[in-house]
Amino acid sequence: MPSSTLESRRVRRAYRWIVATAFVLFLILTGFWFFAAHQLDRIVTREIERAGARGVTVSCPGQDVVGYPFRIGLSCDDVAVDAPGEGFSLDAGPFRSAAQIYQPNKVVSELGSPVRIRSQGQPPVDLTWTLAQASTSFWTEGLDRLSIVSDSPNLAVDGQPVFSALRSTAHVRRREADLDIAATQTSARVEVPQARGLPLFDLSADLTVEGAAGWLSGSATGQSARELLAGRSGTLRSLALAFAGEPSGADLSGDFSFSDDGLLSGDFALAVTSPDRLATIVAGLAPQAASIAQTVASVIPFVGKTENGRTVIRITADQGRLSAGVLPLGTVPPLK
Prior knowledge:
Pfam families: DUF2125 (PF09898). By secondary structure, the protein is α+β, with helices and mostly antiparallel strands.
């Protein structure tokens, strides 16, 4: 038999084996996907029923498991939560989630607006955006990372606009026992009457709270700021504020701690550009902080030093009492 004929048969045999193997793998993948889809649908339905047994109604009309064959996720036409015993209700738009079938511990979700929140004794809150996505990663201890990004977010309270931005981001991650937190607001505006006329601003924060990794496992649920932070310490790498079209801005950094009574202590570096203008802006945004802002602005020329076009001063917090060297600046109220 000619060698060319033998070679041709070998090629056809190898090709049939490849096709057969691919077909078997596809059947296995299909079986696994539908098994996982059934389990996901069963878990979601079970959790909704458990919530109902506690008096909380969770609705997910059009509930469906989607993404076949390489992704798997849940979709709902809209989402609603009603907890009459707690005087709380939430209504939101369509919900979609997806995870790669080979990486089910990383889930990307999307929620449509508007979101309407009603709490007993509180004015109604309405949230809108053009796009809101969340990325979550889970590991052996539960939630490991969380990122939320929204485009054109708007917040209204009791029908009155309060806040808007071009883009908003928040990132939280577990780092051993500590928790890293980073957030930004880009081209933001406070819509309350006393802040009208103020320029757009960018606000960012980057910090670590020691021993707070458990917050991602749900230990922070329902706790006040004082309950969360009392007795804890951390590092503020940056809390930066900059205004569009103006040279004014500030960046605060340093190590901090809170006493069991919720009083702040720490050593900080405050870098300020145009302190007088910044103090005026702060007074408009937060009248309760106006006296501290004006005091800081007045002492900056005397206790600060110039670095890269900004004036930097050292600020010490001792049980809520602020000072720049020997000059008192005011007090920070305890956490509530």
